[in-house]
Amino acid sequence: MANPKSKIGHNKKNFLDKPVEHIDITSFDSRKIIDSMGKMSFASRDTAKASEIFGEMLKDKECSIFLTLAGSTSAGGCMQIYSDLAKYNMVDAIVATGASIIDMDFFEALGFKHYQGSQFQDDTELRDNYIDRIYDTYIDEKQLQICDIFNKKINPDNLIGETKNSSYGHVFKLYLRIKNVNCPVSKVSLGANQGQLYKIQSDHIFPKAKLKLIYKNKPRKEQKEIHEIANIMFMSAEANLDKLVSDPSEYLKSLQKNNAQVLKEQLIPEDESLWQIDSYKLFIQKRRDLIAKSISKFLFEKTELLKDDADNIQDISKLIYLDESETLEKKSSFLINLKSNIQDRDIIESSMKTIAGFANSDEGGILLLGVTDDNEIIGIDDDIMTMKKPDKDGYRLYVLQEIEKYFSKIFVINFIKIKYYEVDSKTLMVLNISPSNESIFFESKDGKNLSPKFFIRIDNSTKELIGQELSNYVIQQFGKN
C-alpha cells in the first residue's frame, strides 16, 4: 500500500494560506437540528441526549458545571465556543491543558493564527518550512516561539550551563533578531531574511579549544560552561566562515574597531580586563547578568505593547484582503521590477504618482508595499537586500529620501507616515499619506518627461488631470489657481 503522506513541493506561504475560523454559536439557532438528531441513531442521538442533559444542568441552580477540554479542539476552531460558554455563565469552571491556554488561546491573542492543513502531509517537509502539525491543523513554529518568550522570567542563574540550542538560547537569538541587531562583522541585520549566505550562525567568543584545556579536569557539569550562551556570539554565516580562532581580547578589540556598538548590541561586557582567558568565569558571570537584564526588560516592554501589537496584526490582515479603492493601493515592490528582477525607476515613479494622487485627494490614502493586486503576500525583503544598509532602517531611510527627492522635506514630515508589519514571515511596509493643504505636482526624474503632472485618485486608480479640468479641481480643492 502506498504511503498516504505526500510531498507536494509547497512553500511556507502555500501551507499557511487558510486560517482556521472559530465557529460563532451565537450567530445561529441550532436547537431544531439537535432535536431532529434525537430521532436518529449512533452519535447523532448521543449528541441530542448530551444537549438535553446540559439543558437540565443549566436549569439546576445547585449544579456546578465543569468544562474539560483539550488543546487540539481550541486549535480546531472551538475557541469562540469556550469563550461564549464562560461569557454567558453556562459553565462554572474550566479544566484545560496547558496547550489550550498558551499554545492555542494566548497564541491567538497575540494576533497569530492556526491554519487548515492535512493529516497526510509529509512532516519532514513541514519541518523544513518550520511548521508544526496538530493532526490536520498547521501552526507557524516561529510564531509559537515568539509566544513562548512572553512566558519566561529570566534571571542570571537560569542561564548557567544553558547552550545556544536550549530554550534560553533560542530566546536570546530571537531577542537579537527582533531588535534587528547587526552581525558584528558584515553589519547585516540578524533580523532580516538574508538567504543562506547571511543565515544566522554562532561561534564561541572564548575559543573552545583553549577552554577545554582549562576545564579538562573539572566536573562534567562545570565543563558545560564552555558552551554557555554567555560565551556565544551570533553572526551571519559569511562572517562565521571568515572568523579565525584567536585570542578573545584581540578578537573583541577588532570587532569593536569595525563597529563601535557591537559589544553593546551583543550584550558583551566592555571591561577589557574580563577579555583575558584566565578571567573567563568572571566574563560569563557578567554577560549572564547583561543578557538576563536586557531580555527581561525587553519582554516587559513587549508585554506592555501586547494589545497594540495584536490589534496591528489584525489590522494589516484586514488591509491585505481589502479591494483597492480611492484610499488604498497595493504594490509588489517600491523599486524592483519583478519581471527583470532589477531596480527600475519606472517602478519607483509609479509609487510616486500614487503618493501624489493620495495627497491631492480628499481623504489621502494608504500605499501597501509587498502585496500584489490579487492579495498575494510577497514581501519587500528583496527590496531591503538591495540597500547599502540592508535592514528596515536603511530601507525606510531610502523610501523617505526618494519621496523627498520628488516632493519636499516638508511634505515628508507633514504628510507621510511609515510602518512595518511582519505577515507569514514576510516584511510589509504601509505608507499612510495624509491629504495635502496645497496642490502636489509630480515631476519625473527619468530625464525625458520633465513637465510637472497633477494626479488624483478616482475609484481604484491614479489619474492625471490636465487643462481646464485641472484648473477647476485645484480651485475647488485648494481654493486657488
Keywords:
481 residues, alpha+beta, Methyltransferase, Cobalt-precorrin-4 Transmethylase, Domain 2, three-stranded antiparallel beta sheet, 44% helix
Written description of the protein model:
The protein is α+β, with helices and mostly antiparallel strands. The chain has three domains: 12-20 and 64-147, no CATH class; 156-304, no CATH class; 309-478, Schlafen, AAA domain (Methyltransferase, Cobalt-precorrin-4 Transmethylase, Domain 2), CATH 3.30.950. It contains 20 helices and 16 strands. It has helices at 12-15, 31-37, 42-59, 71-87, 98-109, 123-128, 141-149, 167-178, 208-215, 220-223, 237-242, 248-258, 262-265, 280-304, 306-321, 345-359, 381-385, 392-406, 409-415, 467-478, and strands at 66-69, 93-96, 115-116, 131-134, 137-140, 200-204, 232-236, 328-331, 336-337, 342-343, 365-369, 416-423, 426-433, 441-442, 453-458, 461-465. It has a four-stranded mixed sheet, with helices on both faces. The chain has a three-stranded antiparallel sheet with strand order 3-5-4. A three-stranded antiparallel sheet has the order 14-15-16. A hairpin with a 4-residue loop joins strand 9 (336-337) and strand 10. The longest helix has 25 residues, at 280-304. It is flat, with a radius of gyration of 28 Å.
